[in-house]
C-alpha cells in the first residue's frame, strides 16, 4: 500500500483525533478511524478494503485503550466489582464477532457501521434531552446476567464492525446495569484493553482469507498509533473535567458526519 506525504500526515492526525475522542467518551476510536480512512484513501476503495481498515483500527484501539484505562483507573473511574465478569463474556463474543465479519462483504460491513453510527447518535441526542444523571450516587451491585448480556452484546458488535466496544458497553452499563456515566466510560476502557488484543489479532491474521494483506493493516496502524496514544491520555483526563453534555454533543456531531460520509455513495446510487 502506497501513501503520499499528505496522506501520511492526515493518517497520523486521524490517530490523534480518534485517540482523543476514544479516551474522552470511552468508545475506542474505530468510529472515527474507519470513516476517515475511507475519506482520505479514495484510491484504495475496493470491495474488501474495509476489512483491512477494520484490522488497522482494531490494532490502534489497543493503543487507545491502554493509556485511557490507566488514566481512568488513576482517577477512580473503574469499577473492579464488575470488571472481571465483563472481560470474560466480552472476549468470547468478540472472537465470534470477528470470525462472523469475515463472512460478510466489506461494503456491507461499511453500511452496517454507518447505520450503527446513526443509531448511536440518536441515542446520544435522547440522553441530551433527558438531561444528565447524578454522578455522585453510590455504586450498586449488578446482577451477573446483566453484566454478561452487556459483555456479549459489546463483544459481538465490536468484533463484527471493528469497533473498540465502548460505544455499546457504555450505554448498556448505564441503562441495563445502572452504572454512572464516568464509571461506565472508565470500566469500558479497561475492558477494551483485553478485548482489543483478541479482536485485533484475529482480524489481522485472517485478512488473507478476504484478499487483503496483513502488512497494509500494520502500516496504517503504525501511522495512527502514536497520535492515538497521546490523544487517548488527554481525552481520558478531560472526561473527568468537561461537562457530560459537552462530551455527548461533540461526539454526536462528529459521528453524524462520519455516518453520512460512509454511506454517501450508496445512498446516492439508490436515488440515481
List the helices and strands and how they pair.
Layout lengths: L4 H21 L4 H11 L8 H26 L5 H22 L4 H25 L13 H18 L4 H10 L5 H25 L8 H26 L4 H28 L1
Task: Characterize the structure shown.
This protein is mainly alpha-helical. It has one domain. It is 78% helix and 0% strand. The longest helix has 28 residues. The chain is globular and about 50 Å long. The mean pLDDT is 84.
User: So how many helices?
Assistant: 10
**Uncertain runs:** none
The portion of residues forming beta strands comes to: under 5%
What is the total number of structural domains?
A: 1
The N- and C-terminal alpha carbons lie at a distance of 32 Å
The ordered H/E elements are HHHHHHHHHH
| Overall geometry | globular
